[in-house]
Amino acid sequence: MGVTVQSYAVACGFDEYFSRLGNGVHRHALHLLNRASEEGFERLAQHLLQAQKQLLRDGVEYRLDAPTPTHPERFLPFDPLPRLILASEWDRLVGGLQQRSRALDALVDDLYGAQRIVRDGVIPEALITSSPFWRPELRGCGGQGRRWCAVAAFDLIRTAHDGWLVLEENLRRGTGIGYALSARETSIAHFPWLMDGYGIAPIHAGLECMREALASLAPWRENPDLVVLTPGRQTSAFYEHNRLAAGMAIPVHEPQELWVEAGRVWRQAPAGAVPLDVIYRRNEDFYPSPVRDVDLLLGIPGLMEVWREGSVAIANPPGTGIASDKLLYSFIPEVIRYYLAEDPRLAQVPTYRCFDALERAHVLSQLEHLVVKRVGGAGGVGMLMGPESTLEQRQHFAALIEQSPRHFVAQPVQELSTLPCWREGRLRRCSVDLRPFVVFGDQPGCLPGALTRVALVPESKVVNLSQGGGYKDTWLLSA
């Protein structure tokens, strides 16, 4: 396979190309690398340059506040060597993700309804009401047949011997579907010679599945009017908002472009005003109102009343984020058993609850060995990576934990699996995670594709797009 591949370092951990179950190179990866080597890695580099230029022209970007070493022009770096997942392996993941989606939806519905799980002592009430994602004004909205977790993005990591762990879930504004589509389109346009001969699941079928799931939220109308709600052009993932809207053939609007009148939500169309049935929201729960001490649901005056009355559906409505609280994540195995009477099909990362005095004492004594996260954090921001931290940073986090223990959790450092990436003229080992998506209409269904995020900084385990991560195509192989 040439010097380029032979020099690829697989020092430790689990590499998905080269240490597949300890049996050497994954046979599908071997075929792909042989093809790349035969064609020449110079050709790979040339096509990658062309692909990145095309991505820039097409506006495929994840906007950052400032450039980073891996995002010098604020575009999202693409890597041409795909992740390979066999159909049998994917089917196991799908079953676990569907189970988790059912349990999460039941949890949110119960918390804003009867709160049986609180009354039965599974989750303490104080942990619910103190969550940064709890919306007390929505109490009473559960138990009315609403779907809360219509779109869920899950972050999975992989360990040796095919072990998958759920790292966290994103139920408010999980980004990635549009970028997964972009990755496949880039592979087809610029690297078809790598794809030749593989049976790869067609990811674009997922857009129709998503549209059907969203439409099912409005059973009162045969052909409901759908819209993607975006915070605006300056938001980091605005490309994706447009991409999904175009792929589902529905409009994308900002809050100020929608209004409430006569008990409905309206948008302006070329032929006149159109009543909306379903809003796929990608913005914050509430926005300040010009009226003192009043917050606006999704930034649209009057939307709260219309939604409560059932005249419009929202995917995912404000308040859904309660199930993304990283402290409540530690209760999800119990949540699955409580609502579904099943054992979890997917494992998750052990989590220390800092509100518990004994667990907090352990965390404070082991900060240099743990990852500490804010329960409301996102995008890898405000996180302590213990092994890479300074004494000053650990002391700072210790003080924060002591001051507000409910708002921090800690986890053992996880070894992420790695994949080869073409960086600076050679193959490098890069840590990766996987973000699959479940859409939950009448039943939960996993989209036929996923986003593989890549930590492009050497030795880093931070794959978040907002922290300089890149992305790969994910091939679900039928054979």
Description:
The chain is an alpha+beta fold and 479 residues long. Among the domains are: 90-152 and 200-340, 3-Layer(aba) Sandwich (Rossmann fold); 350-412, Dna Ligase, domain 1 (2-Layer Sandwich), CATH 3.30.1490. It has 15 helices and 21 strands. The chain has helices at residues 2-6, 27-39, 41-57, 87-111, 116-119, 125-129, 177-190, 192-195, 205-215, 238-248, 303-309, 326-329, 332-340, 357-365, 391-403, and strands at residues 78-86, 151-159, 163-170, 226-229, 252-253, 258-261, 264-269, 272-276, 278-281, 286-288, 295-297, 313-315, 347-348, 352-353, 370-374, 384-385, 408-412, 418-423, 426-440, 444-454, 470-477. Strands 1, 2, 3, 13, 18, 19, 20 and 21 form an eight-stranded mixed beta sheet that branches. The chain has a four-stranded parallel beta sheet with strand order 5-4-9-12. α2 crosses α3 (41-57) and α4 (87-111) crosses α13 (332-340).
What attributes characterize this protein structure?
479 residues; alpha+beta; Dna Ligase, domain 1; 8-stranded mixed beta sheet; 4-stranded parallel beta sheet; 21 strands; 32% helix; 24% strand
